Amino acid sequence: MKLDAHQRGEVTAAARDASERRIFALLRQHYGPTQVWPGDPQALEVVRAATVKAADYAMNAERDVFKIAALMLSFSDDFDTREPWAREIVAAREGDAPIAELWYQAGIAEVRRYEDARR
């Protein structure tokens, strides 16, 4: 069976929507009760923006999109260009190596430093 370009586009859009809804559900489970949760409609937009950001960095795995969305909720949608720790990770990136896990771990460390300073 062969699909024409329109059919392929429909299948791709449906797969992307299903993926974004899975990521959203997981994000809501982990971040929904916290102060960074902007509400469901806005959080779904964050997931969609994280999908685009991940693709811009050649990272298409759902786990990477989830981590990027979590960082966007915690820091901002431009954390990768605004936060020094994130820029350092981008600068050290080799080729198209996935860096979402490095960002996520560095982001967790930043949040912990902030929380420790407030105590």
Task: Outline the secondary-structure elements.
Layout: H1 5-31, H2 40-56, H3 62-74, H4 79-82, H5 84-92, H6 100-118
Helix pairs in contact: 1-2, 1-3, 2-3, 3-6
Structure, described:
With about 120 residues, the chain is mainly alpha-helical. The protein has one domain. It is built from 6 helices and no strands. α1 (about 5-30) packs across α3 (about 60-75) and α3 (about 60-75) runs parallel beside α6. The chain is flat and about 60 Å long. The relative contact order is 0.11. The mean pLDDT is about 90.
Keywords, please?
mainly alpha, flat, 6 helices, 119 residues
- Beta content comes to under 5%
| Unreliably modeled segments | none
How is the biggest beta sheet arranged?
A: none
Mean pLDDT: 91
Count of DSSP-assigned helices: 6
Number of domains: 1
Number of strands: 0
